[in-house]
Amino acid sequence: MLAHGPATSYDLKQRVGLTIGNFWAFAHSQLYDEPARLAEAGLLTVTEEEGGRRKRTYSITDEGHHALQEWLAAPTPDETEVRDLGLLKLFFATFAGPGDLAHLADTRRASHKSRADGYQALYSQIAEHADRWQVKSLELGIRIERTVERFWTEFIEELEADARKPPRSDS
Questions:
Q1: Which is nearest to 115 in space by CA: 91, 146, 85, 140?
Q2: Cα–Cα distance between 164 and 160 in angstroms, integer?
């Protein structure tokens, strides 16, 4: 994030919240601890305000840019990590009460629709002037959210079709 320009830890928190925080979760404490560690490693410089709150502003060094380029060039064979509470609950739905599954599906569909709509609105605002690769990451986010929204919509339709079926008689 500092490759985009100098920032305080608070500034980083704001930048992350509006950008990569949408798809890369991590503790906010990292935004306060990690810059100091990277400065110790020579990847960032730090300037501290005289007086007042003594804010620290971090900037990336040439060595930091080099490390970033190495990281970007390294292979990325890792599988996509999915950590979705709705998916976890669906897996264990055999043990759910009546109506819980329909409620889960409704809330998950609404959640993914809301996220996709938010991404779409952001896309409309920034597509003309944002960095090309940031826009591409946003496009993927929209596609993922719309796909998951569609899954839950189809699942709701499946549950509704099951509810319309006459009860089975075991005679």
A1: 146
A2: 6
pTM of the full structure = 0.84
Read off the tokens for 45: 């410089």
Q: Supply the pLDDT for residue 82.
A: 87
- Beta-bridge partner residues of 57: 8, 47
Side chain identity, residue 126: I
For 145, residues 6+ apart whose C-beta sits below 8 A from its C-beta are: 112, 113, 115, 116, 119
- Could you say which residues of the chain have pLDDT below 70? 170-171
How far is 44 from 106, CA to CA, in rounded Å? 46
Q: Residue 19: helix, strand or coil by DSSP?
A: coil
From the list 94, 113, 98, the residue with the least C-alpha distance to 151 is: 113
